[in-house]
Design brief:
Layout lengths: L1 E2 L8 E3 L12 E8 L7 E13 L2 E8 L9 E5 L10 E12 L3 E7 L2 H15 L2 E3 L1
Length: 133
């Protein structure tokens, strides 16, 4: 579900991927994400886990393969194992999601530390969250 971004300093962005089937910060996982219209429709799509929300929920930002060059709300991260077609991806830094661990469909890949740090820096610049990478 989409949530309001935590307050300035209210989220610790960390990089802790572990290929164990659980959603960890730094991993791209697949989950159901509602469309921007918030009309009950949505689709299964990849999201990047950026930190812990509660004991059983994590914060995430969605990925898209639709090009968004020049948009301040999207950061290009290139391609990765999360997209079987090998298409380049963009991270939407404007929309923040809370994903329940039971709602995760599959663990797709871990973003490498350098690309994760670029995403973390963009989120820090926008929201003032702490980076612990």
């Amino acid at each position: 579900m989409e949530v309001a971004p935590p307050a300035r300093g209210g989220l610790r962005i960390e990089y802790t991927p572990h290929p164990d089937g659980d959603p960890d910060a730094g991993e791209v996982v697949w989950t159901w994400v509602p469309y921007e219209e918030n009309d009950g429709r949505g689709k299964d799509r990849p999201v990047l886990i950026i930190g812990r929300h509660t004991a059983d929920r994590v914060y995430a930002v969605r990925l898209t393969s639709k090009a968004h060059d020049g948009s301040r709300d999207f950061l290009s991260i290139g391609s990765g194992e999360w997209d079987p077609a090998g298409r380049p991806s963009w991270v939407d830094v404007e929309q923040i999601y809370s994903v329940h661990e039971a709602g995760m469909r599959r663990e797709a890949a871990a973003l490498d530390p350098a690309r994760f740090l670029r995403v973390a820096q963009a989120l820090h610049n926008r929201y003032g969250w702490t980076i612990a990478v």
